[in-house]
Write a structure and sequence with these properties.
The structure is a homodimer.
Chain A lengths: L2 H17 L3 E3 L6 E4 H17 L6 E4 L3 E3 H4 L4 H4 L6 E4 L4 H14 L7 E7 L7 H4 L2 E2 L5 E10 L12 E11 L1 H21 L5 E4 L9 H10 L3 E6 L8 E8 L3 H5 L2 E2 L7 E8 H12 L8 H6 L4
Parallel strand pairs in A: 3-8, 7-13
Antiparallel strand pairs in A: 1-2, 4-6, 5-6, 8-9, 9-14, 10-11, 11-12, 12-14
Chain lengths: 307, 307
């Protein structure tokens, strides 16, 4: 297996990042604080992406990190990616149960059995909270939405590019089949150009989502056959296994049918999303141009307004 | 009870905000998407707060919305505010349990019983993830830290100023008892001045945290007697019950002792935090200056660079 040299490289990069103070460990694998330098790069990226997408005149929507459990349950995430979910549980008891919970914490640590599922889940992608609320007839010309939020994926890892909580910027298109596919295809080239202007060695490759379990194999193959998902990949800790820093996805009429989203002509809407992993692009820049943005190439500094 | 007119005013304001598209309902009370206009105000505020606090030359740290469960368990939040917590649960099973979980979802909806507590909790305040990592000896002069993150409190409400997920900016001081109290006291006046420059009718009042249950009454009284917490309040939906939009808190040596944080002289460190509720200040501005920032007083627009 080629896992081992990759893992070594990931741990070495993680150590460099924490030594430099760019990331601060939190006691949980894949959960870090970011320092001001790291954040200035993220700020530069989000500004640059906004400029790149300005021609779309997209609706800006910012969702918090949690969204409705009842919407989650209709999104197929539980079938496809159960291992990655984050379910928010809370305490609904009174004084007596509170005392019992505190006693359990002291006695054996298993206090969480007193909790029950709340009305929310952590959002696994910036666009998941959007579709359930988009039910109904789209305006003439469809909708283009600009999203950014913290998303959660339960996959503890020492790879600094595989965080449990990270920010995802997205542009979502909802409209006809042609509008959706056009959006996806256009953005593959735009993102490639954008990342090349940051002097990153980027490639666009056909990809699949990490569908769960034995049944997942069929889903992966089908997604690839249908040419639905492209990833923009950059080598961060491995030349052989470059990291996806952005992805461009056609959902066909999956969300349209599920949430009854329709075009003005009455057809089931198609949707597509393009997503930027803000931490991953930042890590790619730090890996390739060095840990000190002050000494990055001038073109990169200018593009990100790092001054 | 005076609850009823307040609740009416809160629901009316909520309706105005959603009609104007500033907030978008999500199917869960207290969870909203924000639109671009709302976000431009938040951006203006966070820039303004950064300028106001620049003299401190604070370390910038940005934590994600989740933090270590093992740290949460040492923070007394479970004793004091169990009703507000958010515990992140995940799925650790294989194919067979996955099928059972999906069957349960279809049959009766109770699929979450297949989940177990993960390594993380949702952060209830921006500064909670900081203290556990601050263990050890502080530098000469102590530390001042600039934080901002999404925080979570499980209190579903129709009051738009009582969200379940919202952003909190904080400046935390760790050092001697005098340094901590000075930080807290200075910021009461600074925040008052800042909010007055935004033409908000603000008052500083002694306050207490919403400690849980019967035992909580004693805690509330003790916190007030010791003069530990001040809130900056602005009337949003009620003149009689104004809303806290910022708070300034002395923790004495609570976190210092709990997490073994020490001054260079070997004393247990004292800590203090000042926090800005970014959504609440935004809502106060929208309530008092109107729902259209384009027609706000020029001084306010300039201070927030809304142009």
């Amino acid at each position: 297996m080629s896992e081992s040299p990759d893992l070594q490289a990931q741990r070495a990069f993680q150590q460099q990042l924490t030594d430099a103070g760019l990331l601060v460990r939190s006691g949980v694998a894949g959960v870090y604080a970011r320092n001001g330098v790291f954040e200035s790069i993220v700020d530069g990226l989000t500004r640059m992406i906004g400029v790149e997408g300005a021609w779309q005149q997209a609706e800006v929507l910012r969702f918090p990190p949690v969204f409705a459990r009842k919407h989650y349950e209709r999104l197929d995430h539980l079938a496809n990616f159960p291992n990655l979910l984050g379910s928010v549980h809370g305490f609904e008891g009174g004084d007596a149960q509170h005392r019992a919970m505190l006693d359990d914490m002291v006695a054996h640590g298993d206090w969480a059995r007193h909790l029950s599922p709340s009305e929310t889940m952590l959002a696994p992608a910036a666009c998941y909270p959007l579709y359930p609320g988009a039910q109904g007839v789209l305006p003439e010309g469809g909708r283009t939405v600009d999203l950014e939020s913290f998303v959660y994926r339960h996959e503890p890892s020492d790879d600094p590019a595989r965080m449990q909580a990270f920010r995802m910027r997205e542009f979502v298109r909802m409209g006809t089949a042609e509008q959706a596919r056009q959006h996806r295809d256009d953005w593959i080239e735009r993102i490639k150009g954008m990342l090349e202007s940051l002097l990153l060695p980027v490639e666009a490759v056909v990809a699949n989502d990490p569908f769960f379990g034995r049944g997942g194999k069929v889903m992966k193959a089908s997604q690839r056959e249908q040419d639905l998902k492209y990833e923009l990949v950059v080598p961060i800790c491995s030349e052989e296994h470059p990291t996806a820093v952005a992805s461009c996805n056609c959902h066909l009429d999956h969300f349209g049918a599920r949430f009854d989203i329709r075009t003005v002509h009455g057809d089931v809407a198609h949707t597509a999303c393009v997503g930027f992993g803000l931490e991953r692009i930042t890590l790619a820049l730090l890996r390739i141009h060095g840990l000190s943005p002050a000494s990055w190439p001038l073109a990169v500094r200018k593009a990100l307004r790092l001054d």
